[in-house]
Design a protein that fits this description.
Length: 404
């Protein structure tokens, strides 16, 4: 409900506008997204039954602008084109090298030029993004700029984007050598998730996504932790594909990961609350990731951060020795690095100081408590941080788990 308050001062009149903004968006897991008989990709974002019926009855062809990660396009182009042709869609496909290095405003502008030339109706013709987190983030930002906000649809094709980058509201590109410095909080009209894209994802990128899944498990869900502990290696081997042994574990793991992620994100879509469990693994890792770029993938850097924090938790009395070892073994089973020589005490201290600056003067350090619980600590002493570091290095720096 919009409210306008008028007040008079000596300088003149002043109006204060209070306008709560409501975002509604759907995250839908589906199968066979590119099967020509499945209309989810074209119509699944429409929530009003009357509008849906009108579109289905109309003789007007559907028009769609589609941006696809170049690597994904190499594999899925025939299926995608067949899908669009079979559904009589007027389309333009833009295939782009959406790599982390190209995640820039220049690429967002390149997309916008093409969108503009294609001339779409911003009310009824959402832009479709198909790819990993990089592609979804760039297209999301471009869409949020075009005519001030054009709806867009996310189709994640990596595990990381399936459970993380496609479920929240954030878009962005890198800027001034900093990750995601330009961006907007504009959720998609819908995200359509199809696990079958994962079958072509390189094994290392499946591990990468499992790190973000493990993050949610450690912070919020013991059942998900146990599932990853028991079935993680098999999920990695099968790439979440639905053969008999994998079907249940794969769908349970993704459902819990997305559900817990949304529980955390939805009440805090604009990240006003700085106490965020989803920040676990993200305090030290940004500095580490940028320092060794391109050697560690995002999830790998996150895992190294989480591994160190597990030792901090242990030293703080929040984890038993047995729980600590179970977590580290689970990480190793997911083929994630648990230590890195570039993650020095100096880097950790600098990263935590940086965190203080951007987080309202408190470090707000999420720490695991037992398996599947967490606290946000503001008073972990330097002594504990040091003791944890020494123990961490002593136990894990033998090189066997340092993949880079
Ligand atoms: N918006 C958010 O909330 C959010 C959350 C987490 C991460 N992110 C962003 O996501 C990005 C990382 O995403 P990512 O890990 O998906 O990386 P990515 O987009 O770089 O994809 C990883 C690699 O896999 C390839 N690929 C993608 N799908 C494939 C498929 N089905 N088959 C074969 N190859 C495929 C890509 O070409 C790329 O080489 C980062 O830039 C990060 O900032 C955003
Ligand atoms: Zn992350």
């Amino acid at each position: 409900m919009l409210t306008v308050y008028e007040s008079q001062t000596e300088q003149g009149t002043s109006w204060t506008v209070v306008s709560p903004i409501v975002f509604t968006y759907k995250v839908t897991e589906t199968r066979h997204l590119l099967d020509p008989s499945n209309d989810t990709l074209l119509l699944g974002h429409i929530t009003d039954p009357q509008q849906l019926e009108d579109v289905k009855k109309s003789n007007m062809p559907i028009k769609r602008f589609v941006v696809v990660d170049q690597e994904v396009y190499k594999i899925y182009a025939p299926k995608l084109i067949e899908y669009l042709e079979a559904n009589n869609v007027l389309y333009k496909i833009l295939s782009l090298p959406t790599t982390e290095e190209n995640k820039t405003i220049t690429m967002a502008l390149q997309i916008l030029e093409e969108v503009h030339n294609f001339s779409l109706d911003r009310r009824s013709e959402p832009i479709i993004a198909i790819g990993g987190g990089v592609c979804l983030d760039i297209v999301g930002l471009a869409a949020s700029l075009y005519r001030r906000r054009t709806p867009y649809i996310r189709v994640p094709t990596t595990l990381l984007s399936y459970i993380d980058a496609s479920v929240g509201a954030k878009t962005g590109v890198n800027f001034a050598n900093c990750k995601n410095k330009l961006g907007a909080y504009v959720p998609p009209a819908a995200a359509f998730l199809d696990l079958s894209f994962l079958q072509t994802v390189p094994r290392r990128h499946i591990s990468n996504g499992l790190a973000e899944m493990l993050k949610m498990a450690l912070m919020k869900h013991r059942g998900l932790f146990e599932l990853l502990e028991t079935h993680g290696p098999m999920l990695l081997d099968t790439k979440f594909q639905a053969d008999n042994s994998c079907l249940q574990a794969a769908s349970q793991a993704t459902r819990i990961a997305i559900g817990t992620m949304l529980e955390e994100l939805a009440p805090n879509l604009w990240e006003d609350d700085l106490n965020r469990l989803v920040d676990f693994g993200h305090l030290v890792s940004p500095s580490l990731e940028m320092k060794v770029l391109p050697f560690l993938l995002h999830g790998e850097a996150v895992n190294i951060d989480m591994s160190y924090m597990v030792y901090v938790s242990k030293e703080s009395g929040l984890l038993t020795e047995n729980e600590k070892q179970r977590i580290i073994s689970c990480m190793v089973g997911l083929e994630l690095p648990v230590w890195h020589e570039a993650c020095t005490m100096e880097l950790i201290q600098k990263a935590l100081q940086e965190r203080l600056k951007h987080s309202g003067g408190l470090v707000r350090m999420p720490l695991p408590v037992g398996l599947g619980g967490a606290v946000i600590s503001n008073d972990t002493s330097c002594e504990i941080l040091h003791k944890a570091f020494v123990k961490w290095r002593e136990e894990l720096s033998d090189g066997s788990s340092d993949s880079n």
